[in-house]
Design goal:
By secondary structure, the protein is α/β, with parallel strands linked by helices. The protein has two domains: about 5-140, 3-Layer(aba) Sandwich (Rossmann fold), CATH 3.40.50; about 195-275, Alpha-Beta Plaits, CATH 3.30.70. The chain contains seven helices and twelve strands. It has a six-stranded mixed beta sheet with strand order 4-3-2-5-1-6, sandwiched between helices. α6 packs across α7 (about 240-255). The longest helix is centred in the last third of the chain and has 19 residues, at about 240-255. The model is unreliable at about 145-165, about 170-175 and about 180-190 (pLDDT under 50).
């Protein structure tokens, strides 16, 4: 089915930093597609799959990572066809694991296996392993923005990367995503309230109708946040319609970018600003 795809693999014990270094290894081989823990990643974007780290048990994690479920295999295979993949890098903990993934997905035999010991020192691997064991952290080689809503409640430190270039510009992404597996004993996470304000301010910069975010208040619950935002609006626009659109944009960004589900969002206009002539 995929005879023309050149398959590479990146192998190392669990928790030694494979995912963290995956983009570097792929870049050296001019590979733009990565298979990691059930996900198909194109450069910095998740294009198919569901992370094995979302699984409720370690056994199910292994099944998802190996694509033992037919429906999960088909999703990846469909994406491989759609994107006309020429090269791919499979991440795994052993030669047998990456070979099994390639076989299950109908990919050709692996051309070359790169080992973590070739790109990381013993000290670096020990540090990565210690963090995995003591803090339950796992890196996915994509920005937090690309992590699906399925991770709601399990992301860790997700939005240190959210930075705006200025009005009308898209935010830039400078870090990878760190998640905590659902079966981890470490529990859930909380996001700083400033994250939600940053998202609101970013959307305000994109809307000429919204002058400025004045105040924000967040109540965090297990199922998601309740958010209250006060803004100043610009005279001359349809204020109710502008606030409605502003609210919809913020909810969409929060749910798509932080993987949290918004329970309620209130946006209130507290001030009107007259545009300069």
């Amino acid at each position: 089915m995929f005879e023309s795809i050149k398959v590479y693999a990146f192998v190392g014990p669990s928790g030694t930093g494979k995912s963290y270094r995956a983009q570097m290894v792929a870049g050296e081989k001019d590979i733009h597609f990565i298979i990691d823990d059930g996900l198909l990643i194109n450069d910095n974007k998740v294009i198919a799959g569901e992370s094995a780290k979302k699984a409720s048990t370690k056994i199910e994690t292994v099944k998802k990572a190996l694509f033992l479920h037919e429906d999960e295999r088909k999703v990846i295979q469909k994406a491989l066809k759609k994107y006309k993949v020429k090269k791919i890098l499979i991440l795994g903990t052993s030669d047998g694991m990456v070979e099994k993934i390639a076989e299950n997905l109908g990919l050709p035999k692996i051309t070359k296996i790169i080992y973590i010991t070739e790109v990381a020192t013993d000290e670096e691997m020990q540090t990565a392993r210690r963090i995995r064991v003591t803090e339950g952290k796992h890196v996915i080689p994509v920005p937090t923005f690309e992590i699906k809503k399925d991770f709601s409640g399990y992301l860790l430190d997700p939005l240190q990367i959210f930075k705006s270039k200025g009005k009308g510009e898209k935010p830039y992404i400078s870090e990878k995503s760190i998640i905590r597996p659902t079966f981890s004993y470490m529990g859930n996470f909380t996001i700083s309230d400033s994250v939600f304000r940053q998202i609101a301010e970013y959307q305000a910069e994109k809307m000429p109708e919204i002058h400025k975010v004045l105040k924000s208040r967040v109540q965090n619950y297990g199922e998601g946040p309740i958010i209250y935002i006060e803004v100043s609006v610009v005279y001359g626009y349809n204020i109710p319609q502008s606030l409605k659109e502003f609210k919809a944009r913020i909810i969409k960004d929060i749910e798509n970018l932080t993987a949290m589900n918004v329970i309620k969002l209130d946006v209130v206009a507290k001030n009107i600003v007259f545009p300069e002539k």
